[in-house]
Amino acid sequence: MSVTRQSLAALGSLAGLVLLAGCNRTPTAPLAALSASPAIGRSASTLRADPAAPPSGERRFGRVATEPAYDDASGQVIYILTPENTPLPTHASGWAAVPLYIVEYPANATVGTLDCMGVPGNCPDHDGTFAGAADALEPVVYGDGVLGHDHLLAAPGNPGASGVIHEVHEVLFTPAGVNHGAENDHLTTEAEVRAAVARGDAADFDLGLTVHTAVVSRSVYRHGTPVG
To answer: Measured between alpha carbons, how far is 122 from 56 in angstroms, rounded to an integer?
Structure first.
């Protein structure tokens, strides 16, 4: 995804966290500050290879990064590509951006293999950034580290899909949700995310950040070299 601490630090106040309507808590620090001390979870190197598991981890070739993700309408596995050295945030009118959900799971979650696992993990250019934000925003839930995260976005042709400009939202489980095991529910669609937020099991944070991300084929993903 090419979201680094250095690039986020340059955003300054522009990358300040904003809570989506409907959430009652307001972040008080910019994303750059929240990502300074990432929570440490299970390293990707400790994962056992499982041919039946969903794809996981960032792959690179040339000057692009590719990763697995989920179509936020169907919950089917898709793949996304982000060019290196694109402007961060991407310059686009606000109406053009559609959500890219980063659903972060705490270390004790039992949801299995995620798009990106661990810190340090198999998506090293942004694992630490989002784990650090999770630890700062929900320390009761993420203070012991993270298992990893998934990416959810609208695939081309689906309602809500409108090009390659995406606004990053981090979805974090709440203490109330963890009290009844919500972190063990694998959220792979926008409807499931919205339902979890409505129940108070999760909170949806708009990170005030837009990125350039395109949906690509499985063969493009497989062409890359795994990193992390």
So the answer is: 8
Quick: pLDDT tens for 123-147: 998 999 999 999 999 999 999 999 9
Predicted TM-score (pTM) above 0.85: no
* Separation CA 104–CA 208 (nearest Å): 17
Question: What pLDDT score was predicted for residue 166?
Answer: 87
Q: What are the residues facing 67 on neighbouring strands?
A: 80
* DSSP-H helix ranges across 29-163: 31-34, 127-137, 139-142
* Cα separations in angstroms, 125 against 2, 60, 111, 205: 6, 11, 23, 20
Query: What is the per-residue pLDDT for 189?
Result: 97
Closest by alpha carbon to 101, among 176, 166, 17, 24? 166
**Residue ranges of the chain with per-residue pLDDT less than 50:** 3-49, 87-91, 93-95
Helix or strand run (H / E) with residue 8 = helix 5-9
Provide the pLDDT for residue 228.
74
Cross-strand partners of 153: 71, 100
Residue 109: per-residue pLDDT: 98
Ranges of each domain in the chain: 5-44+55-223
Question: In this structure, how many other beta carbons lie within 10 angstroms of the beta carbon of residue 165?
Answer: 20
Q: Which residues contact 163 (CB under 8 A, 6 or more apart)?
A: 96, 98
- Other CB atoms within 10 A of residue 69 CB: 26
Residue 225: HSE in the Cβ half-sphere, 13 Å Cα cutoff: 4
